[in-house]
Write a structure and sequence with these properties.
heterodimer, A: 121 residues, mainly beta, 7-stranded mixed beta sheet, 4-stranded antiparallel beta sheet, 11 strands, B: 107 residues, 43% strand
């Protein structure tokens, strides 16, 4: 059973870079059936797609965040990571990683539990 | 545009049927997937593809699609179905924007 777990600092200072890692267990990050995404949810608001990465390293980013986002993959550690630069209070959110099933239909059937990141000095 | 629009809130009497809709251009090319989110929890996939339910999702949840509109129907709503529901679809740029979300209240 595929499982995902987010990790990283819960508090980031304004203007700094938010860094999170998602560890994949119960399966390989190099699976041909999945690619890997980051989603966030500000307090009291809806879900926002951040971007995704294939195990090959190909990436897709939300245009509204593209200038600040980098998603990378480390197949040796079965992990993928998110970096969001120049953060402000508006980046305070619960950040989720998810596996995107991309063979045939597209859907996210495996999610991490989420990690709360607060941007504050 | 890759935006997906949902009604902000709907209510349904216990045991009755409610339909939630999602509109967007990407739905003409890709099927929507639907996610249930309860307070303090991660989203859970409830419908994907033409009308497929993951293991463990009750059969009172069903999906349909026509043109630029996807729908999630709960037939015989239960108290535990009270939650926020989000649609999602791949778009032409390879991203997966979410719908604006619908809060379902079971009366």
């Amino acid at each position: 059973q595929l499982q995902l777990q987010e990790s990283g600092p819960g508090l980031v200072k304004p203007s700094e870079t938010l860094s999170l890692t998602c560890t994949v267990s119960g399966g390989s990050i190099s699976s041909s059936s999945y690619y890997w995404g980051w989603i966030r949810q500000p307090p009291g608001k809806g879900l926002e797609w951040i971007g995704s990465i294939y195990y090959s390293g190909s990436t897709y980013y939300n245009p509204s965040l593209k200038s600040r986002v980098t998603i990378s993959v480390d197949t040796s550690k079965n992990q993928f990571s998110l970096k969001l630069s120049s953060v402000t209070a508006a980046d305070t959110a619960v950040y989720y990683c998810a596996g995107v099933h991309g063979s045939g239909y597209y859907y996210m059937d495996v999610w991490g539990k989420g990690t709360t990141v607060t941007v504050s000095s | 545009s890759s935006e997906l629009t949902q009604d902000p809130a709907v209510s349904v009497a216990l045991g009755q049927t409610v339909r939630i809709t999602c509109q967007g251009d990407s739905l003409r090319s890709y099927y929507a997937s639907w996610y249930q989110q309860k307070p303090g929890q991660a989203p859970v996939l409830v419908i994907y593809g033409k009308n497929n339910r993951p293991s463990g999702i009750p059969d009172r949840f069903s999906g349909s699609s026509s043109g630029n509109t996807a729908s999630l129907t709960i037939t015989g709503a239960q108290a535990e179905d009270e939650a926020d529901y989000y649609c999602n679809s791949r778009d032409s740029s390879g991203n997966h924007p979410f719908g604006t979300g619908t809060k379902v209240t079971v009366l």
